[in-house]
Structures are given as C-alpha cells and as structure tokens.
Amino acid sequence: MSGARPHVVVTRCLPEAVEAALDARYRCTFNPADVPMSGAALAAALATADGLLPVVSDRLDRAVWHAARDITGGAPLRCRVVANCGVGVDHIDLDAARVAGVPVTNTPDVLTEDTADLALALLLMAARRLGEAERLVRAGRWAGLAPTHHPGRSPAGKMLGVVGYGRIGRALARKAHDALGMRVQYLARRPVADAEPWATAAPSLDALLETSDVVSLHCPATPETHHLMNAATLARMRPGAILVNTARGSVVDEGALAAALRDGPLAAAGLDVYEQEPAVHPALLALENVVLLPHLGSATVETRTAMGMRAVANLDAVFAGRAPPDRVR
C-alpha cells in the first residue's frame, strides 16, 4: 500500500499481535480503555474513518448508519469496509451497509473448534452439575464424599440433538460422539450430503426436542430463529433434558427457559450467550441448575489472535483494491 495510511478505528482491545499488525499497516485509533463505544462514536467512525474493526458487542444498527449519513450531510461515508472480528454479524444491519456501499466481512473457520469445545464443556458441566458443586466447595458447605450426594447424569449413550449443523455444530457432534459415546441427531436448514454415518437427520425440530437428552443450539440469529426456544418448544423437551446455547442469546426466550428449569421439564442448562448481553435474566441468576458463562466461546489466545488476523487480512484486501476473502455483504 502506498500513500497515506488508511485510518482504521478498532473498537475494543485485541490480542497484542493483532494490534501490532494493525499498527504497522494503518493509522489506527485503538480503545485502550476497552469500554464499549457509543452509537454516536460508531457513527462517527463510519463517517470519518477508512475502516472499522468492530466486535459482536458493537451495535451497528440502522440508527447508527443513519447517524453516520447525517454527519456527512448525506454524502457517501468515508468508511470502505467493516471488518467484523467474529463470525456472527447479526449486530450489523447488513441492508443499511449495502445501501451505504460498505462491504462487511467476518472471520469464519478459525473459531470452530474452540466454540465446540466450550459447548462440550457446558454439556458436561450441566450434566454433572459441576457449577453447583464448585459453588458448594467455595461456600464451605461440602461435608465430604457421600455416595448419594450431588449425583449428576452420565452423557454416555445419551442422545445429543444439534440444532444447526454447520461447522461448529458438526464439530460438537464429533467430539460428543467420539469422546463421550453420545448418539447424535441433527436439524439442518438444508440436506447434509456428507453427514457422518453415526449422525441422523431429525425430521423436524419437534421430533428432535422430543427425543434428545441434550439439545445444543448452533443456529444463526435471524428473524426466523428469534425465540426458537420458547415456552412451547421447551415444553416439548424430554423430562430431565439439558439445553446448551453457544449460538446467540436471541434464540432463547430466557424467561421461558427459567420457568422450564424451575418447573420442568428441563433438568439443567448451559449458556454462554444472552439476549441482552452483558445483562442476564434475573430469574436465571437465581437458579442453581444453570451454568452461566460470559460469552467465552472463542476465548483462547490462539483463536482470538487468529480472528483478529483474519480481520486484518480483510482490511488488507479492501485497501489493496482486492475483494476481501470473507465478505458477508
């Protein structure tokens, strides 16, 4: 790249190696305080910077895009690319980005295994009641081993239902089958031609819910999946079943989930995402039989670095006049 270096606004702190790569290439505005940017600040970045590198917690909704156009007086935005650091882009109004002529990219592939690992961890924690047990020890209420004290459930031989059979859903299925001996069924938006021989396609969501011991959600956040798990669908789950969500918080009606955990049929749940992040539904906070993690699906040094470098590669492509490798819209 020749001439003046493009100006890139980076909304949150990224791994050191990623920020070093960005700083070597571009004139960057970093966020050393690592606090969420306001809608006004995001609009200003779209209006005045050459590139924006946001994360999932940055709401680039229609109002932000309109505010950016107000700043430019209706003239085209200066921003040439929104290089999202993450796979999901439901926090970005893609139609507004298209109208503004700003390409949006994401970072696929690099977080598959770590997110599937976390889903597996939540499955095990919920089934074996490990969150409850850890809190018991910390509170000084453990009186020693007793054969009937604090029993969980073994996942071996149980049926895992995977809702959304993309990269992460399939990775979880493989891990659960190979490591835990679980049986697997899945629900996909389209036929899976190369499905594993030990995985069975469920005919419907209702059928999957009614026959799964554990249901793990891996579908994107869309209008069709909003509150996919609600009072009616949760009621279809088997008595004693477990729900795991590492997809998006909007897929689950959290109030209905709390009721299903308190009154049945669910025995437990494991959540890494929430509808109003970072807020968690107070009814969930009051329950012992739900594991609550703070959106850690991709949170390893290796994966967060790989995600950042993928975003850098998308910036590099756009500023070099090439098509970005991970364009979403």
Task: Describe the protein in words.
With 329 residues, this protein is of the alpha/beta class. It has twelve helices and twelve strands. The chain has helices spanning 16-25, 39-48, 62-71, 94-100, 112-128, 130-138, 167-180, 205-211, 231-235, 254-263, 282-285, 301-319; strands spanning 7-10, 27-29, 51-53, 81-83, 104-105, 159-163, 183-187, 199-201, 214-217, 242-245, 268-271, 290-292. The strands form two sheets. The protein has a seven-stranded parallel beta sheet with strand order 8-7-6-9-10-11-12, sandwiched between helices. Strand 10 (242-245), helix 10 (254-263) and strand 11 form a beta-alpha-beta unit. The longest helix has 19 residues, at 301-319. The protein is elongated. The mean pLDDT is 97.
**Annotation field: number of helices:** 12
Question: Sheet with the most strands?
Answer: 7 strands, parallel
Helix content: 25-40%
Radius of gyration: 22 Å
Q: What would the principal axes of the Cα set say about the shape? A: elongated
Task: Tell me what portion of residues adopts beta-strand conformation.
Answer: 5-15%
Total beta-strand segments: 12
Q: How are the strands ordered across the major sheet?
A: 8-7-6-9-10-11-12
Briefly note the structural class of the backbone: alpha/beta
Distance between the termini: 24 Å
Mean residue pLDDT? 97
